[in-house]
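Example 9 (inverse folding). The structure is encoded as follows.
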């Protein structure tokens, strides 16, 4: 799924670059020399009959390298948090009897973009657990917990089951992780 999001983003960016008109003076210069015309210390001259600064028309295209850094998302689960808000017993498998299932989303490279999560337990959607908002900074950490699927009081153990969360940024799927309480 991450690869699909990357390919979609790269396709859109490549199409935008291909359709963008070239601007006069950008990427223009002397024509490359013929292999026999070059020698160390010798200045490169434009090919005969080809001006060094040709005007650019709307039909010419300039291809530029595209470097894209996609946002990253890491999802972790734990049975609690310590005084520094670090997850206790991080993992994806927990023994029945824990009273809280903590989760942490670490998001990088998506400041100002909208996000949302979709939760399911044993394959059944749990919209009351879903979350959404705007990613506040270049590196953001969200830590929270659940103790029941009904969001009720937290006195009983977390019910047995497979707790899956999917994380989306700006409409694109980025990550999913499942924690099992057995």
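The amino acid assigned to each position is listed next.
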């Amino acid at each position: 799924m991450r690869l699909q999001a990357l390919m979609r983003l790269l396709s859109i960016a490549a199409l935008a670059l291909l359709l963008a008109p070239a601007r006069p003076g950008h990427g223009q210069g002397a024509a490359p020399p013929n292999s026999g015309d070059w020698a160390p210390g010798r200045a490169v001259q434009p090919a005969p009959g080809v001006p060094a600064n040709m005007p650019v028309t709307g039909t010419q295209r300039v291809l530029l390298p595209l470097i894209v850094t996609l946002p990253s998302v890491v999802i972790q689960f734990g049975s609690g948090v310590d005084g520094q808000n670090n997850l206790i017993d991080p993992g994806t498998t927990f023994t029945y009897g824990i009273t809280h299932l903590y989760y942490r989303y670490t998001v990088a490279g998506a400041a100002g973009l909208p996000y949302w999560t979709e939760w399911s337990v044993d394959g059944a959607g749990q919209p009351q657990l879903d979350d959404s908002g705007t990613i506040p900074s270049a590196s953001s950490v969200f830590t929270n917990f659940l103790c029941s699927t009904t969001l009720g009081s937290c006195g009983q153990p977390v019910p047995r089951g497979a707790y899956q969360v999917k994380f989306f940024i700006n409409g694109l799927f980025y990550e999913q992780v499942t924690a099992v309480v057995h």
